[in-house]
Amino acid sequence: MPTADSHGYRPGLVDLKAGQISREIFVNEAIYQEELERIFARAWLFVGHESQIPNPGDFAVSGMGEESVILCRDRAGEVHVFLNSCRHRGMKVCRYDEGNTAVFTCPYHGWSYGTDGRLVGVPFFREAYRSALDRSQWGLVEVAQLARYKGTVWATWDPAAPSFFDYLGDFRRYLDLSLDGWDGSEGGSEVLGGVQKWLIPCNWKFPAENFSGDSYHNISHRSVDLVGIGPSGSGRRDMRERQMARRLQICFPEHGHQTGVYVLPKGEPTPPAYQHSSVVAEYFAHCEAERRRRHGDWARVTGSPGEVFPNTALHPRQPRTIAVWQPRGAYRTEVWRWYLVDAAAPPEVKAFLRDYYIRYSGPAGLTEQDDMENWNYAHAASRGTIARRHPYSYEQGIGHEIEEYEWDGLRLPGWVMDLTEAKSSEHNLRNLYRRWAQFMEAESWAELATWRKSAAPQAADGGC
Ligand code: FES
Ligand SMILES: [Fe+2]
Fold first, then answer.
1. 3-state DSSP assignment of residue 38
2. Does the pLDDT of residue 6 top 50, yes or no?
3. C-beta separation of 387 from 27 below 8 A
4. Residues 410, 268: Cα–Cα separation, whole Å
């Protein structure tokens, strides 16, 4: 069992004391295969949103690690997540992205499964099987645990994993910044249009660390800022509150989740966001007032990009999206991006947001194109025999984390790095790799919980 200062994953690969991480963890195929086993088969993963499957029989195909899964609502209204693989010979039982069905019929030999996963039809059951096949044993493989939270659906293959809320810990309050309505109402969001999916030629951890809080890369987006893709036609966003807010990075070492946030001074009214048409401006001004009424002092907190370990990225405000970095080999990632809007927003607001989201994110979004270009070229330039001998640098802010952070009367859960003066830090990025190393080394959830108890900043930084 590792101790507080010895939990290193193959010393030399992740050295958080020195702030150095080997390129091997991004390019090595054997390490990638281990990730599938130790991370993606154990962690809680984002699967989809209930607004994708509102009616009985609705389904949407999704992914968990490299596995194709079916998110569906059975005839009784229960939500399930099944492995999309026939129990007979493994054929994909569902080859559509989404739809509504009474049964999933395998195209290979014709076994069919109900929307609750039961095997309900077997060709030549009486003749070929002499009615002896025990159909109750051959239903679709279902995830070990499923959680529904504010419209989102999460699952894990591991029956020993902690509950979803334990897995989130206090990070849940920051996740809510993405999932609640703009007016602060519980849930209240829906997926706008379909899910965008595209391939990028880099390791999944490149985008995961970027969304964990790479506050250093703004230079990449200079051209987008100049073009002015923001809602009002200037910059990238309409968030003037950022100018008067404290800018923080917040992470949870015992969980591996991290995010950026902005915190307004006490009593400072949030400037109305999204100056576009009067309908849009009025909608968001009304929502801000409502959010303050519901959440009081906590409404001073607004979100910026974050990450639920291991591969779910949050973009809570402008634009408001969830992305999953689906691993597809050490050198390839399939990005899936869900766009969220307030379900109750007027059609004009949804149309306006659709336009803005498309300008910003996704394969055609100008900001995301900047990011992808960096990830793709950086990955390609890191694969060579010589290149992979040299580690990456993650030294910003080592030793400056604040464990108990309070500002202007507001206590914020998590370990905090204040970027208001420091401008940039790699605090949240180190947190991602700290938990990554723990997952890669731990044999059980009991061991991962041991790290939770021993996770003081210096100890945790001392040996991964
Ligand atoms: S693989 Fe599905 S019925 Fe044979
Ligand atoms: Fe970016």
1. helix
2. no
3. no
4. 13
For residue 109 and ligand 1, the question of a CB distance below 6 A is answered with yes
CA distance 297 to 293: 9
Calculate mean pLDDT across residues 191-211: 96
For residue 71, what are the CA distances in angstroms to 41, 51, 76, 148, 460? 17, 11, 15, 12, 37
Look at residues 41, 247, 249, 248 and name the one whose alpha carbon lies nearest to residue 155.
Answer: 41
Give Cα 90 to chain centroid, integer Å.
28
* Adjacency order of strands within the sheet including 20-21: 14-15, 20-21, 392-393
- Ligand 1 centroid from CA 71, angstroms: 20
Taking each helix axis as running N to C, give the angle between helix 205-213 and helix 427-441, from 0 to 180 degrees, rounded to the nearest 10: 140
pLDDT, tens digit, for every residue of 100-159?
A: 999 999 999 999 999 999 999 999 999 999 999 999 999 999 999 999 999 999 999 999
Instruction: Give 160's contacts (C-beta < 8 A, 6+ positions apart).
Output: 444, 445
Alpha-helical segments (H) within 121-216: 164-168, 172-179, 205-213
Helix axes 427-441, 445-454, angle to 10 degrees: 140
Beta carbons of 190 and 350 less than 8 angstroms apart: no
pTM of the model: 0.94
Mutate to test the pocket of ligand 1, among 83, 104, 106 (most ligand atoms within 8 A of CB): 106
Amino acid at 268: E
